[in-house]
Amino acid sequence: MTARLRVIADPTRVRLMWALDELGGATVQQLADRLMTTHQNTSKHLATLYQTGLVARTREGTRMRYILADWTALWLVEQIAASALAQVEDQHRALVGEEQSEHRTA
Description:
With 106 residues, the chain is α+β, with helices and mostly antiparallel strands. The chain has helices at 2-8, 11-23, 28-35, 39-51, 71-105; strands at 26-27, 55-60, 63-68. Strand 2 (55-60) and strand 3 (63-68) form a beta hairpin. Helix 3 (28-35) packs across helix 4 (39-51). It is elongated. The termini are far apart.
């Protein structure tokens, strides 16, 4: 379990999973173009995702096509992101409320 958590802790790998979810599958070069990174960097991160079973791949001629294989990892990332966003929004509301309160008493 901790190995998978380490894998999805990397921002590039999270972006790759989101891209694969949106595209439904893609080649290394398509993903590299989408993430605006190098082919080598994309390939390295896809290999890590593949080794942990988070993505699957199939050969299309001379290229490999990757698809998201484990939706639970992406779901977990989305839950964490939603929780973090809610926390930031709560903090923002608290700060705005404090500022409005200070202006009323001044």
